[in-house]
Every structure is written in structure tokens, then in C-alpha cells.
Design a protein that fits this description.
Elements lengths: L1 H16 L4 E10 L3 E2 L2 E2 L14 E10 L2 E10 L5 E10 L4 E8 L17 E8 L7 E11 L14 E10 L2 E8 L12 E14 L5 E11 L4 E9 L1
Antiparallel strand pairs: 1-4, 1-14, 2-3, 4-5, 5-6, 6-7, 7-8, 8-9, 9-10, 10-11, 11-12, 12-13, 13-14
């Protein structure tokens, strides 16, 4: 953990001295409920999905060249969901990128505890975003370090892996399907299975002649858990 933090600091220091164009960005989504890869994050203590509650999901990022670092978070209006994530992405091209994410949604310990009993989970993601002529996207996401432990043996990493494929039907409509390769506490699975199938439809609502409000709706199902969900979102 300490080595990773040292490497991250060194990478930021090197990038700060490079003569490349840098850009900051920030924004937020407001969603009717928080569903991640087909799994509702507003759950009861038993792990069963509840009806969900609205969440605000802000982000901030810094990009220089093909490298981006940032933070993404989610907080429920009812106060029963709290998540603060950090990530670093390197884009090899306009279509391929590698991301390392530091998730934290546990908050049973100090946020800065990266040692024994940490709530942090590190995940590596290799993503292909497709192109206008070939609008197929794909990603492989594997948790490799931290609190992602095997349900049967809490001393070993579960290496929870989620794979997703997507197809951009139109610029505003996308269909997707994703699943987990094995048992995982984070995906509430005891074996491999499809956990996330759905469609996302986006739209821009004109408020004035110069301002439009991006909105979207996601209709999906988790075949493994035999659940369905609908999420409405506004991007600010």
C-alpha cells in the first residue's frame, strides 16, 4: 500500500513539471437511486435491496496529456450511503484506457487506514470505448487488493472480476450486459452470473436558449438476483 502511494506521488510530481496542456473538471449527478453494476448500494443490513433513495454523486478530475487523476463520490439524501473513491487513468488512445480505482464505501475505520482491516478496495480496469463506426464498448474490472476478500476465507483476496459489453444504438441510446466471474461479497454472488443487463436513454432538456439540462434514464435487471431497477439521473 505504501509503495503504491509513493509511486502515485512521484507520478503526480513528474506530470506537474511536464510542459503539456492541463485541465480541471468538476460536476455532479443527482440520481433517483444508486445502483452499481446491477447491485443496489442502498441496502438493508441483511444485504437485501431496499427501495433506494436519491443520491448526489460529485466528481473532480485533473487531466494532463493522456493521464487523468480524480475523485468520485456518492452520498444518499437519507445519509445511509457514503462513498469516496480515488482513481487514476491512462489513455493509450482515444479508445483504450487503463484505470486503477481506490474504492471506499465501508467507513468502519479511518479513511487513511491502508493497513490491516482497511475498508479500501483497489481495482484495475481495462476499457475499450469503441468508435463511431464500431460502437461497441467493453471493460474488464478486477479487484486486486484491499477489503475484497473471499466469502469462504477472509484471509485471501477474492479477485472479484466484472466484465461488461455495451452497444451504442444511437448517440443517446446504449444497451449493456455485464456479469461476475465468481463468488463475491461485493456483488452479492456465490458463483459466476450475469448481474447487470439494461438500456440507458439520454436526453437534453432545453431550459433557455443557451442552457440545456442533460437527463437520463436506466432500465435494468440483475438476472442473478432476480431483481429489476429503474434509475433516473440529472447531470449538473
Amino acid at each position: 500500500m505504501k509503495k503504491m502511494r509513493v509511486l502515485a506521488i512521484c507520478a503526480i510530481a513528474v506530470l506537474a513539471t511536464m510542459n503539456v496542456k492541463a485541465q480541471f473538471a468538476t460536476g455532479a449527478d443527482i440520481v433517483s437511486s444508486y445502483v452499481w453494476r446491477g447491485v443496489p448500494q442502498d441496502r438493508t443490513v441483511t444485504g437485501n435491496p431496499s427501495l433506494g433513495s436519491p443520491n448526489i454523486q460529485p466528481y473532480v478530475s485533473f487531466t494532463t496529456g493522456g493521464f487523468t487523476i480524480g475523485s468520485w463520490a456518492s452520498s444518499s439524501f437519507l445519509g445511509n450511503v457514503k462513498e469516496v473513491d480515488l482513481y487514476a487513468t491512462y489513455a493509450f488512445s482515444s479508445a483504450f484506457a487503463l484505470t486503477v480505482t481506490d474504492y471506499n464505501w465501508g467507513f468502519t475505520n479511518s479513511y487513511f487506514n491502508y493497513g490491516t482491516g482497511t475498508d479500501h478496495i483497489f481495482e484495475a480496469t481495462l476499457a475499450y470505448t469503441g468508435s463511431e463506426k464500431f460502437p461497441i464498448s467493453a471493460s474488464v474490472n478486477t479487484m486486486f487488493l484491499g477489503a475484497d476478500k473471499k466469502p469462504s476465507d477472509a484471509t485471501k483476496q477474492a479477485l472479484s472480476t466484472y466484465i461488461e459489453l455495451g452497444y451504442q444504438v444511437t448517440p443517446l441510446v446504449k444497451v449493456f450486459a455485464g456479469g461476475v466471474l465468481g463468488e463475491s461479497n461485493n456483488y452479492l454472488t456465490t458463483s459466476a452470473g450475469v448481474t447487470n443487463v439494461g438500456i440507458k436513454v439520454s436526453k437534453s432538456i432545453a431550459i433557455t436558449d443557451k442552457f440545456s439540462l442533460p437527463v437520463y434514464g436506466i432500465l435494468g435487471t440483475n438476472p442473478y438476483a432476480k431483481n429489476a431497477f429503474f434509475v433516473a439521473g440529472i447531470t449538473l
